[in-house]
Design brief:
By secondary structure, the protein is an alpha/beta fold. It contains seven helices and four strands, in the order E-H-E-H-E-H-H-H-H-E-H. Pfam families: DUF488-N3a (PF22751).
């Protein structure tokens, strides 16, 4: 029996527009969860959030791009590309703590649990949870073989 992995964002949960199976365990994947975020999820795995240094660098670059006239979404996505966020986040996922967390989630999915990865970024912004979604799916599939 195998579960599934899906993903969504906090505002979708707040506004009840997230398309999640009712039985999904909501797993936050943010480094710095706020109190209101913690209330939206069943658990949070901060080790699966991007490293602080990567978050800070991306945010600083995003603010620079906004000051240059880009909209929030455009500045976010451009900053993501400029700091090579995706590659650097994948490197982070190879760290011991992140790899253990991925293994745990994959084992739960392989055992039949439905896991929904949750963070802050809406669907129109590039986001680490999509990279993480792929990593958990791949690991769960390897366990099912």
């Amino acid at each position: 029996m195998s579960g599934t992995v899906t993903e969504t964002y906090a505002a979708a949960l707040q506004h009840d527009i997230a398309d999640l199976p009712g039985e999904a365990t909501r797993v936050g994947v943010v480094r710095r969860p706020t109190g209101w975020f913690a209330a939206l999820v069943d658990e949070n795995r901060p080790e699966l959030g991007p490293p602080e240094s990567l978050l800070s660098e991306t945010k600083d670059r995003q603010e620079d791009l906004r000051r240059q006239g880009l909209c929030d979404e455009g500045a976010h996505n451009a900053a993501w590309e400029e700091v090579n966020f995706a590659t650097r986040y994948r490197e982070h996922l190879a760290s011991e703590a992140a790899a253990e967390a991925i293994a745990d989630l994959a084992e739960r999915v392989a055992a039949g649990e439905t896991v929904a990865l949750v963070c802050f970024e809406g669907d129109s912004k590039r986001c680490h949870r999509r990279i993480l979604d792929d990593a958990v799916r791949e690991r769960a599939a390897s366990l099912a073989e």
